[in-house]
Design a protein that fits this description.
With 393 residues, the protein is an alpha/beta fold. It has 16 helices and 12 strands. The chain folds into 2 domains: 4-160 and 355-390, 2-Layer Sandwich (Nucleotidyltransferase, domain 5); 165-347, ATPase, nucleotide binding domain (Nucleotidyltransferase, domain 5). Helix 6 (165-172) packs across helix 15, helix 7 (212-221) packs antiparallel against helix 13 (286-308) and helix 9 (242-248) crosses helix 13 (286-308).
């Protein structure tokens, strides 16, 4: 008798749940999608925010000076339960039977990512850590779960990021148009798909900060009353400080050639807090500080296109929370002349759902036995099958 994984791999159509919690650690993104070989259909999506107390605990795990081994161990299992509950809740809310779900793909919650690596003996070892125990998800939902996607790419000497280029290729490649899929989450990353491309033609990398620095600055200037700049309204009321902006654009990561990835280690709270102190010394108004860091994200994306893409694409397709920031989108529209700016919503996937959908696609590829890293993006020495599989009940 064939085992359940083999049977699952032979299915023509799979119903897959994608789970994602990003660098902002706001909550769990959950998407239910039907996937065939050449089509992906989004059935349902929701974001379930973390309770404030839990979010504070998670944010502490991001800081090496405050993270404790016992807490990392504990919250790995806590988040596994939270992720499992998110799956059952969305299915219940939308009238989708849990039995109809074939597979769960969970990115988990990154608490540390070190693509530069650290020396051990004569070797430089890259590492990453995502929590949200997949065994708990599989046990509580009864659904086969694929998780921990990044480590296999790192084992193949890649940076473990960006991971979504394969999903971008599945969703957005076009025979006649060149496209850039620009995610603006906490960190911003781009996938460039030349017209008529194959997987080997993909160019992808992290462009730099997305909303992470903006969100932290907004929290600082409002003394915690706001966590983000809704629709870019505060930034629209300010004027960027050109001298400070130019200093920020000198950040070494922005000038490093791909493949490259980044995270809180480069653009987290310590970076934003230092930026805030510099801006305060210059006597900048709150709106001007927010306008400056918003311009920073926009300019870092634009400069990355000019420096590292073969050409400016015909279309730029935006996703992630930053796509709601109209001030930021306006910068991209003004500076990326010749490119048509679109949202993933126009392709049937909301800008907020795109990342969760991507991890559903990666889980599907794993079960199908398909390599889904993109070595040209991560720097891996070869294509590999990503993720660890926990069989359901």
């Amino acid at each position: 008798m064939k085992n359940r994984i083999t049977k699952l791999a032979e299915k023509d159509k799979m119903r897959v749940v994608g789970l994602m919690s990003g660098t902002s650690a706001d909550g769990v993104d959950v998407a239910v999608v039907d996937i065939r070989a050449r089509s992906v259909h989004l059935l349902a999506f929701a974001v379930y925010p973390y309770p404030p107390a839990l979010r504070r605990k998670i944010l502490k795990l991001f800081q090496p000076e405050s993270a404790r081994l016992a807490d990392i161990c504990h919250y790995n299992f806590v988040l596994g339960g939270v992720f499992a509950e998110a799956v059952t809740r969305l299915c219940n809310d939308r009238g989708i039977t849990l039995r109809s779900i074939d597979l769960v793909g969970s990115h988990g919650q990154t608490i540390y990512h070190n693509p530069k690596g650290k020396r051990y003996g004569r070797n430089r070892i890259r590492s990453t850590l995502q929590i949200g125990e997949a065994s708990v998800i599989a046990q509580r939902t009864g659904i086969t779960t694929v998780a921990d996607f990044r480590p296999r790419d790192m084992a193949a000497h890649g940076q473990g990021a960006p991971l979504v280029p394969y999903a971008d290729y599945v969703l957005f490649r076009h025979r006649r148009l060149s496209r850039a899929v620009q995610n603006i989450g906490g960190i911003a990353n781009v996938t460039y798909l030349p017209r008529g491309c194959g997987q080997r033609d993909i160019v992808a990398f992290d462009t730099g900060p997305g909303s992470m620095v903006i969100d932290r600055i907004v929290s600082l200037v409002t003394r915690g009353k706001r966590r983000y700049d809704r629709n870019g309204k505060v930034a629209s009321e300010g004027t960027p400080d050109e001298a400070l902006l130019n200093e920020m654009l000198g950040h070494p990561f922005l000038h490093r050639c791909p493949p490259k990835s980044t995270g809180r280690e480069d653009f987290g709270w310590p970076y934003a807090d230092d930026l805030y102190r510099k801006a305060a010394k210059r006597g900048l108004a709150a709106a001007d500080i927010v306008a400056t860091v918003t311009a920073f994200t926009g300019a870092s994306i634009v400069q990355a296109y000019h420096r590292f893409l073969p050409r400016i694409p015909d279309e730029v397709i935006l996703c992630g929370g930053g796509a709601h920031n109209s001030t930021l989108v306006k910068i991209l529209q003004q500076e990326l002349k010749g490119a048509k700016i679109l949202l993933t919503d126009e392709f049937g996937i909301s800008v907020d759902a795109k990342e969760a959908v991507s991890f559903a696609i990666l889980a599907w590829a794993t079960i199908k036995g398909l390599a889904s890293n993109v070595p040209s993006a991560t720097g891996a020495e070869e294509p590999v099958i990503l993720g660890k599989i926990i069989p359901g009940q």
